[in-house]
Design goal:
143 residues; mainly alpha; Histone, subunit A; 6 helices; elongated
């Protein structure tokens, strides 16, 4: 067992030791590997962001302050997309609903539509008189 621990990378040994210490149980190797992978990705991204901050400020080397600022930016980024909880939505709805709707005047009740000439509800055809009927029949060639 001791020889196996020495063959594992130090990061894996540290994560495994931390997990065993906090949980009190041994964990599967896949869990440790995934946590080490997550740790590597997180730290790499944090260092990349800190480098960007440092370059923006015109520094050549990274400071602790650059890392702190990069971590704070990441936390804000993660919180930016979160949804409001039910209480926040209810408070917002109550605030919006406190504003009364505009009053409807008595002269303009009901459905308001434009004048008839602008509506498409009127008849759009014309009828011919009965006297014009034989003339229409002659045009078609029938007698």
């Amino acid at each position: 067992m001791n020889s196996q621990k020495s063959t594992l990378p130090k990061a894996v040994q540290d994560v495994k030791r931390l997990l065993e210490k906090t949980t009190g149980k041994s964990v599967e190797p896949g869990v440790v590997e995934r946590l080490v992978d997550f740790e590597y990705e997180y730290v790499s991204e944090l260092i990349t962001d800190a480098r960007s901050v440092s370059q923006y400020l015109g520094k050549k080397d990274l400071d602790v302050e650059d890392l702190k600022l990069a971590k704070e930016m990441e936390e804000r980024e993660m919180n930016f997309g979160s949804r409001p909880n039910k209480q926040q939505l209810q408070a917002l709805a109550q605030k919006v609903n406190e504003v009364p709707l505009p009053a409807v005047s008595k002269a303009s009740f009901g459905l308001r539509i434009p004048p008839d000439r602008f509506c498409m509800t009127s008849a759009n055809f014309q009828t011919s008189d009965v006297a014009d009927a034989p003339a229409a029949a002659n045009i078609n060639g029938s007698r």
